[in-house]
Each structure stands twice: as structure tokens, then as C-alpha cells.
Write a structure and sequence with these properties.
By secondary structure, the chain is of the alpha/beta class. It has 4 domains: 85-272, SGNH hydrolase (Rossmann fold, 3-Layer(aba) Sandwich); 310-336 and 362-389, no CATH class; 397-764, no CATH class; 766-796. Helix content is 63%, strand content 7%. The strands form 4 sheets. Strands 4-5-3-6-7-8 form a 6-stranded mixed sheet, with helices on both faces. Helix 2 crosses helix 30, helix 15 (428-447) crosses helix 28 (698-704) and helix 29 (707-717) packs across helix 30. The radius of gyration is 32 Å and the shape is elongated.
């Protein structure tokens, strides 16, 4: 009764809300979001530097998140590279001196805070020719004015960056009098034109005063109140912003430190000076403001202009635009023709005369429609991760942000279960389910920033290995049973694997190796194909007649294992192979193939394990040793119980080992050899009990069918900055943002899956002669693409 009610309810929901209607809703949401963000940019401005300098929030302890953009954490080498031959000057009181020390420690962490505090403090790094000075001017007075005035003279070398600010000394010395505030206004008015003049050639920042923690202030500082500080800040902002009549002031207000101080001033030792972590955050913000536009770090979207379009991107835009226009023209012509053939009403009977001929959809229409849809989707990709239209935020890991969504999808997966069509080991529904829940866990892992938590990282590594295990198992089983080594099968698989990635490489201007998982699966598929297709071709039909062929196949697998071991322990040979042109264009990242070698080596044995498992399983199945009937255990009760016990113990043992892992490099070294333990344990636990083999989760299986598209699309339309951050469609509401962006992301991935399938049927025909002609065209296209890419690379350098 409950099952009947569930099926009726599901049918009722599907009647009103289908995948098609979900995609229409996603399209409407995208259009509304684009319109809202365009209006917001027009109203509030498009300068992310202003947001970085003025607004933000703490995601957690010591983790600062600027409004709408991502902040890069600069390393020593990056800071020196950015500031080479630069001069930075800090002018002000003890608070500015603190900021100076924190800034210098980004360049040289060993620099010590020592010496006379009320004097100028120089710093110079001769290796990078970086000079950073602190100039002691605790009050805005004639002394500070004279210092700034010297720099305005043409004959004097000016600092590239000037960071100034002062007020608390004026409050303290004059006991917080109103006359001191009036004098402060006069003094800052006199230096405002000088700062404005300097700002035309240098970056000038005025640091607003941070609040104090009045309860901790000493008796001689009690007059420094937050009310007085606010009055001085208002005066500085008003005067400096009005220093130019007809245009916006070039002197930038560094007001974000006030927000940082409001959250952390309670940790101050004296109530006046900020704790070290807060100063480090302010210094890193300064580094981002100046260096992001120079070094252009991927995870530092603040203060970065939109990258210029490359020649290949412009050509892609033209192609998709022509496809959209072509489809619209085709649609209008087709619709007019349809209207002419519309059935007319018989005046005597009042009934419609129906057309006898139903016009089939032509391949040209499917082709144009597919590229039209793809063009619109790629425009959304570009807007999300290249055009700076939508906002981006840094990831921040907490245990709850990872484990709560895991529990939630687990409950949904268990709730939506159905009977399988067949009860064989790793049947189609079960493998789709496996891919689905693994992909969802990987997505949660990426968006929650769980890579910083080593136990989670090690378990995710097993999921990636399990996907490759399925690659080995699935393709080996197909070639072994079907014996289909024709070119059509190979081209179909390669097209489905690589189509989306090739398009993204063109549109998003990223190398093929950037989407590392697809090259990994592609190469392993070719390894499986070549291993089995090479003479002698051994398939199940041939091996059934003579057991000798089984030994021949095992010998082939043995040679494959030796080849894998040779490449794994000979980095030089591996790099020489994949550094040859044109392979180098596909597998290089940042000018070398080390990243590709690392990724390949990390899961080097698991595809072999998948092939070997498939061979053993199919051999046992052929000899009818396995019981794969509905509800039947896979083996006899004793053997089944024993294997289940061993599997559970193995599964838990691996989990305990992965959870206790302390050194990432050491664990990565062991991972290729031991990951198969948990994979095999899971397969046996999932397949030995007959009842477990007879059901599957339709929820997970649905996602499993689009798992590849989900993995690739997340790079740009769910995550941001090439997976380094999170896409923010709805600012100020993280939960609603995740719901909306996930909904759009899943709809897009599903649509791309359908587009890929439709295009595969047209571009990869079954007729060999037609296929060879298409392959020649594809080869010419890639040759042209490689030549254009080489020209682009030379022009960049």
C-alpha cells in the first residue's frame, strides 16, 4: 500500500514538475539574476577594490571575507615578485607602525619588532630591491605635511605606495578637546591637495582610525573614546573625499580595518593596539589591493580587471552567435512552413483534417539547436567565472558544512529506492548509483573546502580511484564480451568524454590538463583499448573454447602492469613521452607535465585492478560459480558470511587508517596500493546479499548518469575562480545562494549531457567511410586550434 502511494505521488509530481520545467525555471532564474547584478553594478559601481577596502566579514576565526570578491594569501616569493624595485612608505602613529611590521613580515617573516618605537624604521630586501619605510608622524600637523610635500616635487623619487593615518595622539595630547578636532580638520585640509597630487602617480591610502576597547585603556588613554574616534574619522572622510571638486578623489579610504577591529579589539592587550592576527589581515588586504592587478592570482579576484578576450575566444563567440542566428532563421522558416500545412477545419463536419505525413526532425535542425543551446550555456559559464558579473567568495571549512549535507543526501538516497531490472554484480543501475553518490560527495567536498582536512581528503581520493576502477571494469567487460574494437565505438567514447572539456578550454581559455580528470579517464580508456585490441585479440567467445587464451590475457595484463610500474618509477621517461608536441599542448600545466605525472601516478594501479576484477568476475560467472538470482546471496551462506565479515573489517580498517593519516605525502605514496582494499570491500558488501543487489537508489542513479558533466561544470558555475572559491549569485544569504546556484548548476549539467548525446549521434556516424571523413575534419580543426594556441602563447610571452 505504501509503495502504491509512493508511486502515485511520484507520478503526480512528475505530471506537474518535470526536468523540462525545471530547466525553464532555471533559465528564468538566470535571466533575473543577470538583470539584478547588472543593475547593481551600474548603481553601486564595478570596482571590487572599493569593496575590499571598505567591507567584509569574518567567516571564522582569523578568516576575513571581503564583500563580493576573493582575497589571495600571498606567499613570500609572490610578495617579492610583485614588489620588486618598489618603495612603500607608511606614515603615522603606533597603529600605522603595527601595520608596517605586519606588511614587512609578508616579505620577510624573520623581521623583528625592535628599536626605538618613536623613530623612523627602514626595511630593505636587497634580493628583490624592495624598500619599505615607516616614518614616525603621530599627528596630522606641519611635520607630516612637510614630509608629504617633499614627495610632490618633481626632482624627488616618490614612493609607489603611501599608507598614512593618525588621530589618537591628537586626542590624547589635547585631552579630547573640541579645539584639537578643529585643528585636525584644518591640518588635514592643508595636506589633502598634496595627497591628491601624489595619488595621480602613486597609490595613496588613508587609514581610518580603529575603535578602541575602552575598558582596557590605561588612565592616560581614557580620553580616547570611540565617540571621539568616529568624529575624527568623519572629518577625514569628508575632507579627503571633497578635495577634488569635479571628480572622485584618488586618495583611497582604508576603512576595512575598522570592521576587523570591531570583531577583534576585545583580544587587544592594551585596548588601543590590535592583536597580531587582525594586523596581518589588514596587511594582506593592502597586498591584495596593490598586487592582484600585477600578478593576477586565480584566487584573488579583488582588484582584478576582466581578462581580455583571446583570438580563440572571439572566434568561438562568432561561431556560437552564428549558430544562434542560424537556428532562429531555421526555426522561423520551419514554423511558417508548418503553418501552411496546418490542418484546416471541415465546414460541414466541424472536424479537423489531420496531416498524414509527420515531418521528422532533420540532423541540421538538431545540430543548430544543440549549438544554439550550448552557446547560451557557454555565455553563462563566461559570465560566472570570467566577466566579473557575479560575486565570488573564499571557501571556509567547518565539519558541519561537510557532514550535514552528506547526511542529508544520504537520507534522500535511501528514501528514493527502486527494484533493479537485473540482479547481476555491478549491474547498470547499481553502477549509476555508485557514480551518483560518489559525485555528490565529491561536490560537497569541493564546495565546503574540505581538502584542508586530511582524513576527508584521503577518503575522497578513494572515491576518485573508485571512478577509475569502474572505468577499468566497464570498458574491459565491454571489449571482452562484445569484441567490438571498431573505430566507431572508440570515437563515441572519446567524444562523450572530451566534448565539453574541449569547448570549455576554448571558451574559458584554460589548458586541457586543467580539467585533469577527463585527460586521466581518456588516457586510461585508450590504454584499455590498446591492451585488448593488440595482437592477439583475446575475447570471451574465443577464450571459452580454449582455456589457454585466459593465460594469454593474463600475460597481457601482466605486461600492462610492468609498463605502469616502469612509468611510475621513471619520471624522466614519463615526462619525455608527454612533453612531445602535440601531447605537450594537452598535458602541460604551467609549462611542465609534473601535475599530469602526479595525477596519473596517484591512481596508477586502480584501472588495472578494475580490469583484473572484471576478468575474474566474468570467468566465475561463466562457470556458474556465482548465484545472481533475485534475493539469493552471491555464494553459499558460509562463504557469503565470511566474505562479508572480511569486507566490513577491511572497509573499517582502511577508514581508520585514512582518518589517522598525519602526513599527506606519505599517505599519497601508499594510496595507489591500498585504495583497492576499500573499493573491493564496498563491492562485496553491496553485492553479496541478494536483497542489497536487488534494489538501488534512483536518486543517486539519476545523478550518476550526468556525473561527468557535474564534475566538469562545477569548475565554473557552482564553484568560482577555477574551483578556488564559491560562486555568489545571491549575496548576503549563503543558504539561499547554495540552493539557487545548485539548482541552476544541476539543470545546466543535465542539459549539456543531452546536447553531448545528440551531437555524438550526428558527428560520429556508424558508416565507416562517413566517419573517416568526419575524423579528417576534426583532425584539421584541432590542427588549426593548436596553431592558434601556439600563436597566442607566443604573443603572451
Amino acid at each position: 500500500m505504501a509503495a502504491l502511494a509512493y508511486n502515485l505521488g511520484k507520478r503526480e509530481i512528475n505530471h506537474y514538475f518535470s526536468v523540462r520545467s525545471a530547466k525553464v525555471l532555471a533559465l528564468v532564474a538566470v535571466l533575473l539574476l543577470v538583470a539584478c547584478h547588472l543593475a547593481s553594478r551600474r548603481y553601486r559601481g564595478n570596482d571590487s577594490c572599493e569593496y575590499l577596502l571598505s567591507s567584509g566579514r569574518f567567516l571564522g576565526e582569523k578568516v576575513w571575507q571581503p564583500h563580493s570578491c576573493m582575497m589571495h594569501k600571498y606567499k613570500i616569493s609572490e610578495a617579492k615578485n610583485c614588489l620588486v624595485d618598489k618603495h612603500i612608505a607608511f606614515i603615522g602613529d603606533s597603529r600605522i607602525r603595527q601595520l608596517f611590521y605586519s606588511f614587512v613580515k609578508i616579505i620577510n617573516p624573520q623581521f623583528k619588532e625592535e628599536g626605538n618605537k618613536h623613530e623612523n624604521i627602514p626595511f630593505e630586501d636587497k634580493t628583490a630591491s624592495v624598500k619599505v619605510d615607516f616614518l614616525w608622524h603621530p599627528e596630522v600637523n606641519g611635520s607630516m605635511k612637510q614630509c608629504i610635500k617633499v614627495w610632490t616635487e618633481d626632482s624627488i623619487a616618490k614612493p609607489h605606495v603611501i599608507v598614512a593615518g593618525a588621530a589618537t595622539w591628537s586626542i590624547k595630547i589635547h585631552n579630547g578637546s573640541s579645539e584639537a578636532l578643529s585643528q585636525y580638520k584644518m591640518n588635514i585640509t592643508s595636506i589633502a591637495p598634496l595627497l591628491e597630487k601624489l595619488a595621480k602617480t602613486s597609490d595613496v591610502y588613508w587609514v581610518l582610525q580603529d575603535p578602541v576597547y575602552e575598558d582596557l585603556l590605561s588612565e592616560n588613554r581614557k580620553m580616547i573614546t570611540n565617540e571621539k574616534i568616529d568624529a575624527y574619522n568623519e572629518a577625514a572622510v569628508s575632507i579627503l573625499n571633497s578635495s577634488t571638486r569635479n571628480s572622485k578623489s584618488n586618495v583611497k579610504m582604508f576603512s576595512v580595518s575598522k570592521l576587523i577591529a570591531q570583531e577583534t579589539i576585545m583580544e587587544s592587550l592594551d585596548g588601543l593596539h590590535l592583536p597580531e592576527s587582525s594586523r596581518e589581515t589588514s596587511a594582506m588586504i593592502l597586498m591584495n589591493v596593490y598586487c592582484n592587478k600585477i600578478l593576477k592570482p586565480v584566487d584573488g579576484s579583488c582588484c582584478q580587471p576582466r581578462p581580455p578576450l583571446t583570438l580563440i575566444q572571439k572566434l568561438a563567440a562568432c561561431f556560437f552567435t552564428l549558430s544562434i542566428i542560424g537556428y532562429l532563421v531555421f526555426y522561423i522558416i520551419h514554423r511558417n512552413a508548418h503553418r501552411k500545412n496546418k490542418p484546416c477545419t471541415d465546414l460541414e463536419s466541424g472536424e479537423e483534417k489531420k496531416n498524414i505525413i509527420n515531418t521528422p526532425v532533420s540532423s541540421l535542425e538538431i545540430l543548430l539547436q544543440s549549438f544554439c543551446k550550448l552557446g547560451l550555456i557557454m555565455a553563462y559559464f563566461y559570465m560566472c567565472d570570467r566577466a566579473n558579473l557575479f560575486m565570488k567568495e573564499n571557501k571556509f571549512y567547518t565539519h558541519s558544512s561537510f557532514f550535514i549535507p552528506i547526511i542529508y543526501i544520504l537520507v534522500l538516497g535511501v528514501f528514493y529506492n527502486e527494484n533493479t531490472k537485473e540482479t547481476k554484480v555491478l549491474n547498470r543501475e547499481q553502477t549509476d548509483e555508485w557514480k551518483g553518490w560518489m559525485q555528490l560527495v565529491i561536490l560537497i567536498y569541493h564546495i565546503s573546502g574540505a581538502s584542508t582536512f586530511l582524513p576527508v581528503y584521503m577518503h575522497i581520493r578513494v572515491l576518485v580511484a573508485a571512478y577509475l576502477f569502474q572505468t577499468g571494469y566497464g570498458h574491459f567487460s565491454y571489449f571482452w564480451i562484445k569484441g567490438d574494437f571498431g573505430i566507431h565505438r572508440v570515437c563515441q567514447v572519446l567524444f562523450r568524454l572530451n566534448f565539453l572539456v574541449v569547448v570549455l578550454c576554448i571558451v574559458m581559455d584554460r589548458p586541457y590538463q586543467f580539467y585533469y580528470f577527463v585527460p586521466l579517464v581518456t588516457v586510461w580508456f585508450m590504454v584499455i583499448y590498446v591492451t585488448l585490441a593488440l595482437w592477439p585479440q583475446i575475447i570471451q567467445k574465443k577464450a571459452n573454447g580454449n582455456c589457454f587464451w585466459h593465460f594469454g590475457l593474463l600475460l597481457k595484463l601482466g605486461f600492462l602492469l610492468l609498463f605502469i610500474c616502469f612509468l611510475a618509477y621513471s619520471q624522466g621517461a614519463f615526462e619525455k613521452i608527454f612533453s612531445l608536441w602535440p601531447l605537450s599542448k594537452c598535458f602541460e600545466l604551467k609549462g611542465n607535465v609534473y601535475e599530469w605525472w602526479f595525477r596519473w601516478r596517484l591512481d596508477r594501479y586502480v584501472v588495472f585492478h578494475g580490469m583484473l576484477f572484471a576478468f575474474i568476475y566474468l570467468a566465475l560467472q561463466k562457470r556458474q560459480i556465482l548465484s545472481e538470482g533475485k534475493g539469493e546471496p552471491l555464494f553459499s551462506n558460509k562463504i557469503s558470511n565470511f566474505l562479508l565479515f572480511i569486507s566490513v573489517v577491511s572497509f573499517l580498517t582502511y577508514s581508520i587508517w585514512a582518518s589517522s593519516c598525519k602526513n599527506k605525502a606519505e599517505c599519497n605514496e601508499l594510496h595507489p596500493s591500498v585504495s583497492v582494499v576499500q573499493i573491493l570491500a564496498f563491492i562485496l558488501i553491496r553485492n553479496i546479499p541478494g536483497y542489497a543487489r536487488s534494489v538501488y537508489s534512483s536518486f543517486f542513479a539519476w545523478f550518476g548518469k550526468i556525473s561527468l558533466e557535474l564534475f566538469i561544470c562545477q569548475y565554473h558555475i557552482w564553484l568560482a575562480a577555477d574551483t578556488r572559491g564559491i560562486l555568489v549569485l545571491i549575496p548576503g544569504n549563503p543558504m539561499l545562494n547554495i540552493i539557487v546556484s545548485t539548482f541552476i548548476f544541476v539543470c545546466v549539467a543535465h542539459e549539456i549531457s543531452q546536447i553531448t548525446n545528440d551531437l555524438a549521434q550526428i558527428i560520429i556516424p556508424k558508416d565507416n567511410s562517413s566517419l573517416l571523413k568526419r575524423l579528417a575534419c576534426i583532425a584539421a580543426f584541432f590542427c588549426g586550434l593548436l596553431i592558434l594556441s601556439s600563436i597566442q602563447d607566443k604573443s603572451k610571452h
